[in-house]
Amino acid sequence: MNTTHTIEERKTEKLDANTIKITQIEIFKLIVPLKKPFVISLGTITNAENIVVKIHTNQGIVGTGEGCPFVFIVGETQATDFEMAQVFAKNFKGKNPLEIQERIADMDRITTFNSTVKSAFEVALQDIAGKFANLPLYALWGGKKDKELYTDMTVGISTPEDMAKCAKEFVDQGYPVIKVKLGTTKKEDVARIKAIREAIGMEIPLCIDANQGWDTVTAISTLKMLEQYQITHCEEPVPHWNNLALKKVTEHSPIPIMADESLFDHRDAFKLATLQACDYFNIKLSKAGGCANALKIADIAEVAGIQCQVGGMSETRFGVTILAHLSLARKSIVHHDMDTALLLAEDPVIGGITYAENGRVIVPDGPGVGADFDPEYLNKMEKIVI
User: Fold this and answer.
1) In the chain, what percentage of residues exceed pLDDT 70?
2) In this predicted structure, what is the pLDDT of residue 13?
């Protein structure tokens, strides 16, 4: 069955929500090279080493999911996710893929944490649900195309001169927001931002991400020195486990603070909102464990009066497409760090979002994710079928 049929064609199909079952699951080790090494305070990556899951059903609908393990943050690797995915696949066989909350509970009973590989399976289930309902994910989740999406572009850690050159190139290409990786020493980080502002001027919005690179005192003093450069917000200035330190930095920083590594799922969101530990949330599927938890984070944020950003690890355009669907589904998502696919040297995706002029992101209207992986590209990768 072609799972991208039109609405008229789908009217003639006999789909049954009660009898649909999972028959087979394919698991792939997806490796995509980056254009150049990407450096943050936690480490360096040269390839996107992701997990792709394809869930087949007895009614012909196939759902696809992508997980992006970044070991420095989630404690998972492609190898560990590949093994755990086989455990989940064996548990899923014969079960109803439309019972998404039940399948999430199945994974949670099998293992604690492992949010990235869980997200790959949950996204595949959401893809099946969207195709079954013949709705794009944003509509399935109650959203509509009522806002335009623009991605920022990220500058990795290097010398001030190299970072300023990179930022200027992005601005010249029309990207509306520049994100800068920091998190080494105060002297070095201030020099980086100074050089970038001299290169791009003061009009372009500039946000920074320390990736837990500072202690509390360094964070506060560095952020006070950076105030003059009109920084929009700073992501995760201190170690992820120290919510009280994050709260202290938020209280004393002249620059708004965004929780990233300290925010995995909706439970973390509730704790951070209750503590008033940050000004913004950064939602990532590989931390949240999938779309359902990501939507819960956005809902908690809306109630708490906190605005959100969607961001990624090393997602292809497939993963970025899901982030775009999430943004259209929730008004609390106002910032978009959706540039990961632009850092890749190859594009293994068919369909999906389109990067248009000035960083504008156009979201597809096909059912489900509206994207998939090129079978020829996947066939080059290590795989197992359960």
Assistant:
1) 97
2) 57
Q: Is residue 194 very low, low, confident or very high in pLDDT (cuts 50, 70, 90)?
A: very high
DSSP 363: P
Q: How far apart are CA 127 and CA 124, in angstroms?
A: 5
Residue 270 corresponds to which tokens in the numbers above? 């509730």
Burial class, 376, CB count within 10 angstroms (exposed 0-12 / middle 13-18 / buried 19+): exposed
Residues listed for the chain: 386
The pLDDT of residue 41 is: 87
* Nearest to 174, CA basis, from 358, 343, 361: 358
The two structure tokens encoding residue 219: 């964070």
Which distant-in-sequence residues (6+ apart) come within 8 Å of 185 by Cβ? none
In a 3-state reduction of DSSP, which class is residue 105? helix
Name the residue with tokens 């969607």.
310
Residues with a catalytic annotation lie at 181, 209, 235, 260, 284
Please compute, for residue 7, the number of CA atoms within 13 A of its CA located in the half-sphere on the CB side: 4
In the beta sheet, which residues pair with residue 333?
308
Res 11 pLDDT > 50:
no
pLDDT in tens, 52-90: 999 999 999 999 999 999 999 999 999 999 999 999 999
Orientation angle between helical segments 115-133 and 78-92, nearest 10 degrees:
50
- Res 19: pLDDT: 97
Q: pTM for the complete prediction?
A: 0.94
Tell how far CA 52 is from the center of its chain.
15
Q: Are 150 and 132 in contact (CB under 8 A)?
A: no
- The residues near 126 (Cβ < 8 Å, ≥ 6 apart) are 63, 65, 100, 137, 140, 290, 291, 292, 322, 368, 369
- Integer Cα distance of 336 and 327 in angstroms: 8
How many other CB atoms are found less than 10 A from the CB of residue 214?
27
CA angle 286, 129, 21 (to 5 degrees): 105
With tokens 């209207």, the residue in question is 365
Q: Are 167 and 178 a contacting pair, CB within 8 Å?
A: yes
For residue 86, the one-letter residue type is Q
Q: Token pair for residue 301?
A: 């944020």
**Residue among 286, 275, 283, 269 nearest 248 (CA):** 275
Degrees, nearest 5: CA angle 148-291-31: 90
Distance linking the first and last C-alpha atoms of the chain: 21
